[in-house]
């Protein structure tokens, strides 16, 4: 099983305060957190660091999260992607969806599930629904 402290996380969120708070939360899990503020920055950092996990917002400037995910998926179908957003539906994107606001007490288990080898490239739809429900209630 992958140890959370050893993973590399790429985080994309344009809202500065949310980005800083969430980055601090992620740094409690691993010191290998790369924080970006739009889809363009996120894709450039993705190419540079090849993260173990991507966590992204959808509504971002320059390149939105959906476009960012699509570009990643053109090159890589296995890196787990978690979308943390206030929006609820994203069509056929290969993602794990977490709806804002986030219940951080459950977030570590969501990350572990997303990166565990038995769940790659993503968790099942049923698990996604259970995790989304638990995180928003």
Q: Tags for this entry?
A:
single chain; 137 residues; alpha/beta; Rossmann fold; 5-stranded parallel β-sheet; 5 helices; 15% strand; disordered C terminus
Map the helices and strands.
Elements lengths: L8 E4 L3 H12 L5 E4 L2 H11 L3 E4 L8 H11 L5 E5 L10 E4 L4 H12 L9 H12 L1
Parallel strand pairs: 1-2, 1-3, 3-4, 4-5
Helix pairs in contact: 2-3
Helix and strand element order: EHEHEHEEHH
How much strand content do the residues show?
15-25%
According to DSSP, the number of beta strands is: 5
- CATH fold group: Rossmann fold
Residue windows where pLDDT falls under 50 for at least 5 positions: 118-137
Characterise the protein shown here.
This protein is of the alpha/beta class. The protein has one domain: 3-Layer(aba) Sandwich (Rossmann fold), CATH 3.40.50. The chain contains 5 helices and 5 strands, in the order βαβαβαββαα. Helix 2 packs parallel to helix 3. The termini are far apart.
Short description:
The chain contains five helices and five strands. It is an alpha/beta fold and 137 residues long.
């Amino acid at each position: 099983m992958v140890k959370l402290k050893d993973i590399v996380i790429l985080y994309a969120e344009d809202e500065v305060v949310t980005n800083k708070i969430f980055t601090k939360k992620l740094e409690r899990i691993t010191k290998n957190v790369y924080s970006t503020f739009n889809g363009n920055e996120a894709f450039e950092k993705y190419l540079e660091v090849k993260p173990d996990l991507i966590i992204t917002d959808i509504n971002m400037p320059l390149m939105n999260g959906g476009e960012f995910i699509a570009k990643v998926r053109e090159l890589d179908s296995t890196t787990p992607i978690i979308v943390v957003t206030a929006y609820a539906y994203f069509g056929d994107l290969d993602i794990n969806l977490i709806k804002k606001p986030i219940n951080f007490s459950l977030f570590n288990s969501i990350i572990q599930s997303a990166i565990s080898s038995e769940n790659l490239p993503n968790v099942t739809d049923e698990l996604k629904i259970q995790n989304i429900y638990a995180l928003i209630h």
